[in-house]
## 1
Amino acid sequence: MPESTEGKTNEHVNFYCLGGGNEVGRSCHIVEYKGKVVMLDAGVHPAYSGIESLPFYDDFDLSRVDVLLISHFHLDHAASLPYVMQHTNFKGRVFMTYPTKAIYKWLLNDFVRVTTITDDSNGMDENSNAFLYTDEDLNSSLDRIERLDYHSTIEVDGIRFTAFPAGHVLGAAMFLVEMGGLKFLFTGDYSREEDRHLSSAEVPDVTPDLLIVESTFGTATHVPRLERENKLTTVIHSTLQQGGRCLLPVFALGRAQEILLILDEYWQRHKDLQNVPIYYASSLAKKCMAVYERYINMMNDSIRKKFTETNENPFHFKYIKNVAHADRIDDLNPCVMIASPGMLQNGVSRQLLEKWCPDPRNTVIMTGYSVDGTMAKKLLTEPDQIPALNNPDVSIPRRMNVEEVSFAAHVDYEQNSEFIDLVHAKKIVLVHGESNPMGRLKSALLSRYQKFKDTEDEVKVYNPRDGSKLDLEFKGIKIAKVMGQLATSLPEDHDTVSGILVQKNFDLNLLKVDDLREFTGLTATVVRERQVLRCNVKRSLLYWQFTQMFGYVKILIDDPNEYSFEVMDVVRITLEESEALATIEWHSGIVDDTVADSAIAIIISCDSIPASVKKSSHQHSHAHIKEVHSDAVKQEKHDVLIKEEDQTAEVNKFNSSVKKESTDLDSVLSDDYSPDIRLKHISMLLHAQFGDLFVTLPNNEGGTITIGKHKATIDYKNFNVDCKSNVLRGRIEGILRRSLDLVAPLSHE
Ligand SMILES: [Zn+2]
């Protein structure tokens, strides 16, 4: 059994709001983390048409999307999907639940048809981009849509996601997504109230880092369900009694089924109404009935019970007549008409509204959420007249009653805040709400979590606008699975285990080298490095110089024929005094290479120190070496051993097994051990320690070392180190002190 081991780090995740930011409509969000991209929903805005109704797709390179998850079939969440799949560079995988896909297909067929008719009659020309896609586009994209069940988890390239019931409409899902230690929950539209056919949304048993939650109703409180049902049936009943007609504009499917269940039951109980027809004007009604029957297992207990007890489809209504077109009905007498679209922008519901609105006996009842900018929203202000759709110059008087009884299955403040409490995320992004309710919800949540401000549990709430990007920080927990031999011999308590960390996508596995091939197909190669340098110094001096630089060195062999020691447990140095050669050996690796570089630099520079050679050869006591060293200053110029070109050679120019010809002590005379050369040595030592982080200033004035946000400047005039970080300054001063010791003999007076 693999075990897990964890570590905490600060991580950043990007959230892009392409739609549904401070608005209800064209939902589309992108979560990007460590190069993986998840897109959530691809809707259209019901108040606009054509290209204008799309989310801001130009704001993100859709070719980078790995996975697109569609929460439910409503047009403001799904209707631009064929456009994304057929007319952009999107090449990711698309997922939705089984019922969502089944209904989506019919709905979008209808959407293509309705927008085409409307835009035709609007007299729009072809260049207006009124048509986002054709039936053909829709059909060819269908095959590429994959389906998933509630509670099933799918993994795509290290992105794991699970669908949970969201209430709202048949098949609506929340998605819990995990990638590389980041967990986020996207609610989509959701409801926390059991209604006639759907269960309430579930709370996943996981604490995500980030919650993306709808805010449609902001801080509003729903009227209790029973009261709403009573109001609906009362308004309808009294309208019919006074000889009027009722229009209920609804979205073709979903909430319509809930209204139908309420009315069918009410008619059952009221004999006086049974000869009054209820029309459900939807070309999709018949087709979707099958879907509602097939997925009865995804609905709540009461509807399942009804189904199993009576063996009848609860959606085969007794008092409701399905009609495909509004013009086929007799609307001279009282009747109830349930017709789409819900926003009254076009189609059957709009035709009937225009026809019925001058008669004060009639009533229009808004049962859904009315989006800003649509006729549905405008009607709620009870205008005296409305513009005719086919001729905006013509106004139609509005005398019919306007009522609003909401059956929109979105959470109210109490339900939403309770859910948010339970989810317990520290970063909350509000979407799917008009500016005001969304802003009010943000304030309410902030004051709800005020007590956590400036603590570890501080809750941040965001209400991004369309086109904006959020950079969110969270505490990432890295979990690595311990596999193979390591897992069988884990320490009892919480001791550390060490091994080789192998990453595939976001999965981290910790293994022993021996298990590499079996578990990862990788092989391990150890690169042993070896360099031989000329080194004409005695062992005592070499030892002293290394202890000056590294503090401690471990003597391995100290006999007359061989002298070798180890630096920082990784680099082994062997000195052959008779040959004047030093061999440096280490395993190739970032850290070990750096230590080896320093060792090479020391050997090169100590070889170039004129005095060291002669004097130190007499010394065996470490305590006396310092004296020897200062004596060296007095040595004459011709004691210099190293050629000019060797002095300026950079450490990394030495190849392995370089043997330099022995330099004849008397034949090679350097002109001078100038301060310049001395400074070059210091630069070389600093470079060996800090690599490319060390940069020399022009004219040998000094150098800079930049590590992270800290920058240190070294002035070669006085060897002062200017640095805000005491730690870094201390480290550099220590190295400088030792370097100066090493090159001190070079200063000539
Ligand atoms: Zn919805």
Note: Residues 72, 74, 77, 168, 189 surround zinc ion (CB under 6 Å).
## 2
Amino acid sequence: MQTSGPSAARQPLPEVNMKFKRATLERAEKFISDIYFTDVNLRGQLYPDTQPVEEIHHYGSSGRYLSPAQATGGRGEVKVGDSFGPTWATHWFRVTAEVPERFAGQQVRLRWNTGCEAMVYSTENEPLQGLTELGGQERTDFILSRSAVAGQRYVFHIEMACNPIMGAGHAGMINPPDPNRTFTLAQCELAVYDPDCAALYYDLELLVAMASKMDDKWPRSYQALYTANEIVNACRVGDRDSYKRCHEIARQFFNQHNGDSQLTIASMANCHIDCAWLWTYEETVRKCARSFASTLRLMEDYPELNFACSQAQQYEWVKVHYPGLYDRMKTAVADGRFISVGGSWVEMDANMPGSEALARQFLVGQRFFKQEFGQYCQVFWLPDTFGYSSQLPQLMTSAGMKYFLTQKISWNLINKFPHHSFKWQGLDGTQVITHFPPANTYGCEVTIDEVLNTVTNLEDKGRVSESLMLYGYGDGGGGPTEGMLERMQRLKDCDGLPRIRPSTPMDFFSKLESTSASSLCTWVGEMYLELHNATYTTQAEIKKANRVGEFLLRDAETVSAFASLLKLADYPHTELLRIWKLFLLNQFHDILPGTSIEAAHDLAKDYYKDVHKSAKQMFVTGLDALLTSSTGQPSTEAAAGAGTDSSSVLTAALVNPFSWQREEVCSVPAGVQVPDGCSVQRNAGDDGSVLALVQVPSLGVACGKTIFSASQASTAVVEAVEESVGAYRLSNKHLHVTIDRHGQLTSLIVNKTGREALPEGQTGNRLVMFDDIPLFWDAWDVMPYHLETRRVLDNATELRVTETGPLRVSVQYKVQISERSHLVQTISLCSNEEFVRFHTRVDWHENRQFLKVEFPVDVSSTEATYETQFGHTRRPTHSNTSWDVAKFELCGHKWCDYSEYGFGMAVMTDCKYGYCAKDKLIRISLLRSPKAPDGNSDMGCHEFSYAVFPHQGSFQDAGVIRQSYNFNHPLSIMARASSSPQAAVPASSSVSWLTIDNPAIVLEAVKMAEEQVEGRPGSLILRLYESFGGRATGNIRFTFPGALNVQSVVKCNILEEAIADSNGATPSLTSSGSQTAQLCVKPFEVVTLRLEF
Ligand SMILES: [Zn+2]
């Protein structure tokens, strides 16, 4: 082969030369290789000339988000080859360059490569584009001019972030980060870029890929091969005219079109940016800026580039930290090219968020999109979450979205999901049109493999004529690149491959609905991901902070709403929104699942502390207002039992955010007077507190001695009797429980029926350990084979009685788990409760061990029930099919139940999410010990509780649902100096603001409406749901204080907009002036009511 020289026509051989595929193909590959023969091949001519920049001035290394102007402490002039670090550090450079004479009229680029992330800024501090290695495919060019002017000077700022785009894992991507990495400035130069050479390069790249990837049973791959060969023969490297001639040969090949029946790929760009993962939230702010700025720049050259972008949080980060870039994004949104999708605050985990939190993802997210861009998102977008709750169809529809996109179920370990386009039917029957891009990724690079996979993988061939391809680097950000767009242009309609049609999410889905909806199959219920099931357990502290936070937010909103309606305090809208945003961010799909690096989890824990503290403060402020007369002084806060003067008599206040009356054994702080005649029990410890049975009405507050009225009426007692040496029987009016010296239950009898819940010869509360070594995804996966390594911890010591009644009895024991870890558990039974509590403290220092607890149950049923958002899901208790086998570790919220007709057993937890009820055994997953990506995951002390609740009748009738709320959020007495007789909650009284006469209907949230009506006392939002799984009619009775008369009840969607009721059963006040509304709900229906006063 000749390099550039006088352009002479090639002289073909007089006879046809027979070609062999391997050699022909490899020859063409080498012609575009960036490794081999670059001195004589086409690839080597992409940048035919280079020139060093004039100066690289290092002027600062400091924290994130520093504007270039503020950077200090630089090294001055640096050069290519210098190194910078350590991991996560930031360095700023000013690069000065001048276009040399010989570059005039050519396309000139700045090339910068440090092997980590970087962004180029203008001298006005505007972010222009990322300069980032994208996992081997580099975005290291920044176009300075398409027709350079000799002598023109350029000055730029470059921010170097010392982290590769996929984090800094030590010797492996998901390993804990190496904190001491340095990065070398390998390249910083001006270069001429040859667009004609590039065009031919992209032609050949595709021809070679088609020749090698397409089925060689058919002629098309050979046609590609021969075209490539012809080009290599005809091309004279360095001769731009020959590039153009060869490009014409390629163009003729790519313009051979398909027949009408060919499938179409609707393509759109996206960029999956994990809000935190192998990096922290702080780095993600910059990842967003790099990715979005790069995409906007690319849009200037490629009009077909449409970009789908999710996660309101990421828009807000850019808005706050990069206002200029945000303005440019807004313009692109208005042009319809930057397309908001998702409608949620972040791409959240879709298994564990509680009911209201899941609704808030949509409320907070959609309101952001509406406020910023004038419209709601129309497509729910959650491509990377580890399983999909069966309530998502109802919630997303209620939030204005009827289309859903994901692809994660393609990661299933055992079973292949049978559809790519289908109707997904949720728990309540709502259906949404759903699509999984058949390439099984959201990070396509527009390769021939991906294009072919989009056709061959498609499960719905014949039913649909279009499927989606999402291109753009993701996870660590990146987005679309020049190469992806060049390839797409050539593959628009090339015979043998599907057509590619640039599209948008709405365009794709509305076409799918209009052309294929009637032929789509239906998938009913949850989309369980058969992988990453350990994410229900990993990072126990995060899970606990999440569960606790959900209840604290509920308390804060409920009390603040009533204080505000009564004009006793302003509703803390701004502060509530601030902490809800932090809370929702922490439900991101690598934080709540516990699959991020340690630094990311630490920051998330700080956010949780902030949320908890603020929510508690709002609750106290609201309660203070309710206990104070409008003219009186606020009551002084006195922390329960702590630091108070024991001589002063404190009054007690109890708040119940739930829609049912409660009676619980509760700790009464020292200084709070318990009326005479009440049964009390001295508390363990010497803080002067006692136990008493307390009472509070539904959605209300009890104050003073009224909280003890249940205690005065009750004679219920509980006792502990030593049955044999070291074994005890605990009993109350509901249960008889026998505990052996290992802390295991040997008998669990429901008194009402005399029925034993445990199978004969088996024990309950067996603590068990498993080896827990997955195949790769350490924090994510627990594999089915872990069950084969089960070991029972039956070496308990020190079993002793610690509480003797009459209100609560307890025994405590200790188990040495290993030389490094131990567990102390207190088993308690209260006089009035139908379940046994297990309060557990673990000092945990294991390596790839999994701690669970087991309760065998003597019932027969093919299904067990697990709580999910606004309802429950039934799953098999057997392993008949491969789909059943895959369900060995399952997500549940506060409870899980295993029942046959008439009898069953539930377990409840206060912060756990992993369960499995199979083969007459319920297991709760307690603690794991993975080592990647957080090398210290779950090490240290843990405190949690679970309970076992054997019951007569169904779990619905037995009250498991209500008790699980109570168990998670026990009554807690607030000690107050006094409350005023004129207060909203007067001294020594109890008030109830709402009652519901049907236990199937559960109140989930009380809040002030986001939008208030001018001149009204305020609009109150109630969120309720049908919890039993049946149709229910109920009366909601409002007993609001003072002049707060409900004037109207309006049914809304979760965006708080009035909706027409498809049931035809619009809730309304039963008569004019009445304070009762009748509600008819479908199974698992979520109802949002807006009350006007
Ligand atoms: Zn992700």
Note: The radius of gyration is 33 Å.
